[in-house]
Amino acid sequence: MINVAILGSTGSIGTSTLDVITRQNERFNAFALTANKNIERLYEQCCHYLPEIAVMVDEDCAHELEKKLKKNIETSHIKVLSGTEALDDVASDEQVDYVMAAIVGAAGLSSSLAAARSGKRILLANKESLVMSGDLFMQTVKDNGATLLPIDSEHNAIFQSMPESFTRTAASSNNQGSLALSGVTKILLTASGGPFLNKTLDQLHHVTPDQACAHPTWEMGRKISVDSATMMNKGLEVIEASWLFNATADDIQVVIHPQSVVHSMVSYSDGSVLAQLGNPDMRTPIAHAMAWPDRMESGVEQLDIFKVAQLNFEQPDFERFVCLRLAYDALRAAGTAPAILNAANEIAVDSFLNGEITFTRIADVVEQTLEQLVSKTATSLEIILSADEQARRVAKEICAGNS
Ligand code: NAD
Ligand code: MG
User: Fold this and answer.
1) Per-residue pLDDT averaged across 11-24, rounded?
2) Are 110 and 181 found together in one domain?
3) Which of 60, 104, 156, 192 is 20 to 30 A from 263 in CA distance terms?
């Protein structure tokens, strides 16, 4: 039995992971489940999956969950922990084999790193941790013999389209594999373009949080849905891909593909282009990473290629989707610039979701924060966390000034 700790089990990725585990319950056990504040959902999951440990970051929520679990003989054994350190503890628990890192935002960094430090198989959905601390994260994976498998659908597709010799080292060492030596000429990172692909800049100004969260092809949490609408999600993914595949900004081309059927592609020097296709359902990359290097059933319907009929590809518009340009700039600037970009974006998205700033201000807030702060070499976690904190403060001031 493989013990899985699901960090962020109540979210969109967490729920899909539990669905895969249900179908594969002879191989996988939901050993630990964690949530921020959603007591009801975590309680239901505890009753259904009977994990050994449940974590609620919020202390009051943890007390309430514990009270509810104690009432039932079947769930009374479940150990309830609280606080952010508890997330690190379950990520490094010696009984845990695989860690699904599916907390949203910078809040997922510490526990993802804890999993890397303890040499786990990390199923990485939390792209923000790689964006913030790519160098340190990859080094920690290498130093501790951890295995890193991408859950983000595009990165999982790239991983599947890379030569096996490359991915075997990419999963476990510091990506010393070279793209050029593997014959790779370009990574083609696909993007649906989100719900506002064809809106003008003027129309974008008036969009609401609910419109931004109504993604045409994927069902996701609210933060990543807004990131998809601004295309910051793709920007974060370019940075994520650069670390996972030892690629430069110039090696990665974003391709708009509205159908979300081709999840990404890899071009080779002999003219071949390899792609991974499938229905847009996160259970495919989750099952791939859990079973790797084998395959297993995920519950996802087989792709009906005749129903798809058409596949379209377009160049991205960097004028309307400013966030994408900012992310490429931050990747080229390196150091703490991606952490600043990420933190400013989290604040701006939060303000937008709370109705405090307009949609198009998100990019302004990120751009102005990047202009105000100097990127430093990201040699330690302290430096990264301090850049994150500073960027949050500056971005909050900018949001307040523009409300
Ligand atoms: P979500 O909002 O649906 O779920 C987030 C989870 O994190 C919840 O369980 C929540 O309780 C927990 N959480 C939130 N804030 C927390 C905090 N401060 N401390 C501890 N836990 C906290 O998000 P999601 O859509 O499942 O996305 C999770 C991660 O996966 C993100 O990094 C996202 O970019 C990435 N991702 C998601 C998808 C998708 O299809 N949803 C696809 C690719 C990558
Ligand atoms: Mg993605």
Assistant:
1) 98
2) no
3) 104
Residue 233: strand pairing partners: none
Q: Which of 10, 12, 239 gets mutated to test ligand 1 (max ligand atoms within 8 A of its CB)?
A: 12
- Residue-level pLDDT at 167: 84
For residues 30-43, average pLDDT: 97
Same-domain check for residues 26 and 137: yes
Q: Which of 76, 108, 105 is nearest to 90 (CA)?
A: 108
Number of the ligand 1 atom closest to the C-alpha atom of 38: 11
Find, among 394, 322, 324, the residue nearest to 361 by Cα. 322
Question: Domain check: are 325 and 396 in the same one?
Answer: no
Q: What is the model's pLDDT at position 403?
A: 41
Same domain, residue pair 17 and 52 = yes
Residues 213 and 352 occupy one common structural domain: no
396 Cα to the center of ligand 2, angstroms: 27
Q: Report how far residue 94's alpha carbon sits from residue 112's, in angstroms, rounded to the nearest whole number.
A: 15
CATH code assigned at 68: 3.40.50.720
Calculate the alpha carbon distances from 381 to 127, 174, 377 in Å: 17, 18, 11
Q: Which domain holds residue 222?
A: 154-163+176-280+302-329
Say if 170 falls within a structural domain: no
- Which atom of ligand 1 is closest in space to residue 35's alpha carbon? 11
- Total structural domains within the chain: 3
| Backbone angles phi and psi of 191, in degrees to 5 | -140, 135
Query: Is residue 121 in some structural domain?
Result: yes
In a domain, 189, yes or no: yes
Q: Give the Cβ contact number of residue 203 at 10 Å.
A: 12
Share of the chain above pLDDT 90, in %: 91
Contact 57, 37 (CB under 8 A): yes
pLDDT at 402 over 70: no
pLDDT at residue 174, as a whole number: 53
**Hey, what are 97's tokens?**
């084999």
Q: How far apart are CA 321 and CA 103, in angstroms?
A: 26
Average pLDDT, the chain: 95
**Within a domain: residue 292?**
no
Residues with a beta carbon under 5 angstroms from ion ligand 2? 152-154
Among 206, 199, 238, which Cα is nearest to 331's?
238
For residues 62 and 131, membership in a common domain is answered with yes
